[in-house]
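We modelled the chain as a single entity of 273 amino acids. Its sequence is:
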Amino acid sequence: MWRVKRWLGRLDANRSQMLGTVSHELRNNLTGMIGMTELVGSEELDPAEVRELLALAHLQAVDAAEMVEDLLTATRLERSALHVEMSSVDVNDEVETTVRRFVGEGMAIEMDLLVDLPAARGDALRVRQVLRNLVSNAARYGGSSVAVRTTQDGDQVRIVVSDDGDGVPGEDEGTIFLPYRRSTTTKRHLASVGLGLWISRQLAHAMGGSLEYQRLHDRTEFGFTMGTHDTESSGAPGLNQPAGAKLRASWSRLGELADRGSILADEVVRTTV
């Protein structure tokens, strides 16, 4: 049990750091929005300057809203209270919508979308959330070349977000999908609370899919896979399981991760109390 206690201590430290980061980032965004809107209301500005200030304020508001959305999603996931609305999802349309938003913010993204890609079975809102987190992750930690492509493999639809950055350091590969983890290798400071990849994988699982990382041909790739709409979904793995099944799964995960010294300790606590 000493290992569990040690992991609990690490988790508490990570959560404390996350709360500090959230407070700092939200304060920065709110301060910026307040300052820019005050300028718009008090200064003699020409229309072009007003539009520029309002556009910047809008971007900061979006960043803050998405940070809060991720925190709310994380809370629901930890309580096994997240529900997904499974339906037919036009994956190419969701990719184009998400990429268009980032391009509008000045980010260059290549798209390679498979023609006649079948509809996937998923929750459109959650698919967009996963895509947004993956593209944001590439912008924060990746290289200058970011690309999104869609492919099909039998009854599986796959979205791949890649970049030409250095990739995940070897010592971090075993922990990138754990909560409250942030890379220390980023070239610039951007709002991040260390939840994006964990949330994205949990959402992928909730839709009966998967999210995996690989380094291929000098590019970092995150592959988000879902079943096609005409494929029966097996439900939401990891959510709404009976308590006994969740307990066995937690202790099984303990054994798998013990050698790496990493653990989702909050999952163990939740299923053993």
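As a brief sanity check on the tokenised model: Residues 186-191, 233-238, 240-273 have pLDDT under 50 and may be disordered. Helices lie at 2-42, 47-78, 91-104, 124-141, 196-206, 243-258, 265-272.
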